[in-house]
Amino acid sequence: MSAATGRRRWSFWIGLAVAAVLLFAVAPAVLSDFRLGLLAKFLCYGMVAVGIGLAWGRGGMLTLGQGVFFGLGAYMMAMHLKLADAELRGDAVPDFMQFAGVRVLPALWAPFASPVVTVLAILVVPGLLALVLGLGVFRRRVKGAYFAILSQALAAAFAILLIGQQTLGGSNGLNRFRSFFALSLNDPANRLLLFFLTAAALLLTVLATRQLMVSRYGELLVAVRDQEERVRFLGYDPATIKVVAYVSAAFFAGIGGALFVPVVGIISPNDVGVVPSIAFLAGVAIGGRTTLLGPVLGAVGVAWTQSLLSEQFPAGWTYLQGALFILVIGFLPAGLAGIGPLLRRWRRRRVPPPAVVEKEAELVA
């Protein structure tokens, strides 16, 4: 193992340890309940960003439709929570269905009365859909802008479909959740527990992604991004390699969406359409799409900055976000995570090598 590889390895573990201390010790001690809830929301975005960093940063797949998988996990969790609340009240259907005059539970809702089925569905359905889509797209060698447009169209179609489904709340979505697996969401202690659960899920997601990146599969994924035809010539199937990254990204997004529901208390088509999908991508690009922690820091940092600045300048944040995105793409292609290596390269160019210094000393003498 080279010295550079060793430094990167230790820097990752040190960064992960610092993140764990900040999330599990510092944040609960210094943030109010409201700010802690906001941070938990942004950590859910971070899980989506990790998957985008793997698929786009390492695999070269510009995924503009992660809102679909985020929404699948969110809506399945929301359906279970609404059914659990209805059971606590002794009702046969959720409250919004009663207001609409629905007295019989739709067949689509019935499986999600079980918490076990709900958890399994959240873990399986987004990845299964990504598997089907990935095999259909990548085996036909659809890539680049065509894949980006296709994924974005999928997100738009998914949001339109949800708006037309009144049994899923229509454009209002699903909201007013009172419990989370028998835990009252009005209890501050349970809200803190939910924050810890979200933070732990994010750290596990980062660890799983790192394992993929440092493995032989990670090397193949980068090779497919840079020289797909050469990888095919060597006997590997680039479609299979891409599908694994795409399914992993969908899996992470589904988990992030599922935790988003009890954290925020609402899920609607506005949270899963084209605009949220592009916002996920912007955070990853600003943080640094080719790094491991850059997408997380970018997604969380951009969302946190948006929350703070929009409180003071509601109409100005969009322009600032656009300017930041242009600045990063134009002058920092590696994102904010690339500032450190850029400064080190600049410093090395400023300091002359020892041979040059010795030669100048001889000339002076």
TrEMBL record:
Keyword rRNA-binding included in the entry's annotation: no
Positions of transmembrane segments: 12-31, 37-56, 63-81, 112-138, 145-168, 188-208, 243-267, 319-343
Compartment list: Cell membrane
Superkingdom as given in the UniProt entry: Bacteria
Keywords noted in UniProt: Cell membrane, Membrane, Transmembrane, Transmembrane helix
CDD domains: TM_PBP1_LivM_like (cd06581)
Membrane topology listed for this record: Multi-pass membrane protein
Protein name (record): Urea ABC transporter permease subunit UrtC
Keyword Transmembrane helix found: yes
Pfam families with a match to the protein in the record: BPD_transp_2
Organism: Pseudonocardia ailaonensis
